[in-house]
Amino acid sequence: MDNKEAAKSQAKAAQRVEEGAKNLEFLLDLPLNVSVEVGRSRIMIKDLLQMREGNVIELDKLAGEPLDLYVNSRLIARGEAVLVNDKFGIRLTDVVSPTERIETLG
């Protein structure tokens, strides 16, 4: 392959990459549901109906354990709670690998 053919091939490859990027741009504006789970608990309806201000619900996680970050109900990462400008946030400490995410699809 001579230099002219190589340059044409590279130009075509660059064009395909650019077209692919343009085709994916619409994804950047899709809304996602992001939630952070502190823990879970199961309670009876009768106990729920009797709850008042000040009641405590025991969760299945220990204090200091990482919080779970879900995007569209899929576990994406774990992290710790932080306070920034009087608002709560989450600092990611462990991002779930793509392999693990695929395994949880089934």
Primary descriptors:
106 residues; alpha+beta; Surface presentation of antigens (SPOA); 2 domains; 31% helix; 27% strand; Flagellar motor switch protein FliN; cell membrane; chemotaxis
Q: Widest sheet: strand order?
A: 1-2-3-4
Number of helices: 3
The CATH superfamily of the largest domain is known as SpoA-like
- The helix/strand class is alpha+beta
Helix share, percent: 25-40%
Proper CATH architecture of the largest domain: Roll
Number of domains in the coordinates?
A: 2
Number of strands: 4
Shape: elongated
CATH class of the largest domain: Mainly Beta
Radius of gyration: 23 Å
Uncertain regions: pLDDT < 50 for 5+ in a row? none
Q: Could you describe the largest sheet, including whether it forms a barrel?
A: 4 strands, antiparallel
Beta-strand content: 25-35%
Whole-number average pLDDT? Answer: 85
Termini distance?
46 Å
Spell out the helices and strands N to C: HEHEEEH
Protein name: Flagellar motor switch protein FliN
Organism: Desulfuromonas versatilis
Domain Flagellar motor switch protein FliN-like C-terminal: 27-96
Keywords: Cell membrane, Chemotaxis, Flagellar rotation, Membrane
